[in-house]
Amino acid sequence: MKIPFNKPYLTGEETKYIQEAVASGKISGDGIFTKKCHDFFQKRYGFKKALLTTSCTDALEMAAILGNISPGDEVIAPSYTFVSTVNAFVLRGAKIIFCDSEVDHPNIDANKIEALITEKTRAIIPVHYAGFACDMHKIMQLAEKYNLLVIEDAAQAIDSYYTYPSGETMPLGSIGTFSAFSFHETKNIISGEGGMIIVNDERFAGRAEIIREKGTNRSAFFRGEVDKYGWVDIGSSFLPSDIISAFLYAQLENLERIQDRRRILWQHYHNQLIPLEKAGLLELPKIPTYATNNAHMFYIILNSLETRSGLIEHLRKHDVLAVFHYLSLHKSEFYSGFGESHSELPNSDRFTDCLLRMPLYYSLESGSVEYICDLITTYLKSRES
Known about the structure:
Elements: H1 14-23, H2 32-45, E1 49-53, H3 56-66, E2 74-78, H4 84-90, E3 95-99, E4 121-124, H5 136-146, E5 149-153, E6 161-163, E7 169-171, E8 178-182, E9 195-199, H6 205-212, H7 218-222, H8 242-252, H9 255-278, E10 299-301, H10 305-317, H11 333-337, H12 346-354, E11 355-357, H13 366-384
Parallel strand pairs: 2-3, 2-4, 4-5, 5-8
Antiparallel strand pairs: 1-9, 6-7, 8-9, 10-11
C-alpha cells in the first residue's frame, strides 16, 4: 500500500466545464468561468476585487508592482516561507528583512516586527502557514502606525479566518491591502497551476486590471468604458486561460465537501498522535485562539533533525511519503550571495530542521491515517528504548 504525500482530487465536473469553456469560443483570459470564479470569491468572502492569475507567484508580483515597491525599499517577511513570498519584492529591487517565527508556530512573530521597521520599510508580508492566521490585529496596528502596506501571502489559507479581539471574524486574504492565493495541485482547491490576487483597497482596483492585462486598459475597453485601449502602465500577462478557470470552478462548487473531508482527516491524525505529544516525543500543530483550521496541512515537529531524518526513512521503507518543508531563507545561497548577514532566527531554523508534513488529501482513507500514525508511534518509541 503506497501512500503518496499528495493526490489531486477531481470532483467529476472539471472536464465538463472545460468542454463548455472551449465551446464558448473564448478560451483566453477572462472568459465565462473566470468571471464565475471572481463572483464566487467576492460574494462568499466579501473580497473587494478578486482577479485570477496564473500562479500565486504572479499574484505576489502584481502586489509588489501595485505597491510601487522600488530599489532601496525594505520589506519585512518571515524567513520560514517559500521563495516566491520574497522573490516578488526582490524583483522590484527591495531589500528583504527577515523576521523569526513564533516559538510554537511557523508564522511570523508579530511581536518582533516593530524592532525591524526603519524609515525605508514599505511593507509587511505575513504568511498564513498551514492556513492558520498570523496575528493580524497586531500587524495591522503596526501598518497603520508606520503607514505600511500589508500583503497577505494566503497561498495555503483558502476558507480560513481570523478573529479580532473585538470578536469580529474576517476571512484571511480580506484584511491586508492585497493578498495572494494559490491553486497549485497541492492546495485544498486546485487548478493544477493557478492563483489569485485580492485587492482590498479599492483605490488600486483599476490599476490591478491594467497590470494584469500587460499594462493596457483592455478590460475597461471590453466593458465599454473607453473607446480604444492602449499601453498605459507597466504590467505583464498575469491572467490565466478560461480552461484553467473552468477546472477551478468545478472545485469551488465542491468547496464545503472538500473542506469537510480534509478536516476529518486532520482531526484523525491529531487524535491518534496526542499520546506521543504527551510523552514528549513530538509536538502537534498549535492553532492560535484567533485562528481557524482549514486543514490545509497536517505536520508534526520532531525533537531533532536526526529524529526527523530517521522517521522520513522509516516511513519511506513502509511506502509512506512524508516530507519536510522550507529551508530558512535567511541562510539561503542566494541571500548570502548578496553579502547579506542576518541575526540568528532560531525558531525558523528549528522548523527547518524538525517540521515534517504528513500525507493529507481528499481520497486518503482513515485506515491509512491510522497506519501512518502506527508507524510514527513504533519508530519514536523504539528510539526511547
